[in-house]
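Supplementary Note 3. Input sequence used for the single-chain structure prediction.
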Amino acid sequence: MKPPLPPLDTRAERFDLAVGTAAEFLRSSWEELRDVSFEIADMPAATDEDGIPRWHVLSQEKRIVLYRLPIERLSHLHRNDDLHRRMMIEGCVFRAAAEYLDRDPWDLGPERFRYF
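The predicted structure, written as discrete structure tokens, is reproduced below.
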């Protein structure tokens, strides 16, 4: 009998996990987000006046689409490790949700970012 294969751990799967955990935190904290669909796409269909968007908010459809490739490849991290990549992804989820709610991102989870 062969030993089981280790689970796959791809960059896309880590991205999905980071988006999913941040989205669940936000849904549990903000009733206005409970029915919002957080979706992941590879790339946006087109650029906008600011360049390549990292997310797209569709308020009427209750959808937030996060674009994995621009978030991963165009973000400038001061330290390129798993923790900082996850924090950057979560930050994008919070900023997209804040745009959806028309609020400041820091209002959405102030206790989540208090590490002292």
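Strands lie at 37-41, 55-58, 63-67. The helical segments are 11-29, 68-74, 82-101, 105-108.
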